[in-house]
Amino acid sequence: MAKPQQGETYKCQTCGMQLEVKSPCQCDSGEPTLTCCSQPLAKE
Ligand SMILES: [Zn+2]
Fold first, then answer.
1. Which end of the chain has a smaller Cβ tally under 10 Å, C or N?
2. pLDDT digits over 2-23, tens only?
3. Domain locations in the chain?
């Protein structure tokens, strides 16, 4: 998964939950893990 950028929306393909990124990921290594229903969220 690429790092979430500001303004992007992520959606759970199973239950329809949506997450909007209000501030981008700033970590130096690794990346956030966004999951729901045991599946990674898909970028809208
Ligand atoms: Zn879900």
1. C
2. 789 999 999 999 999 999 999 9
3. 8-43
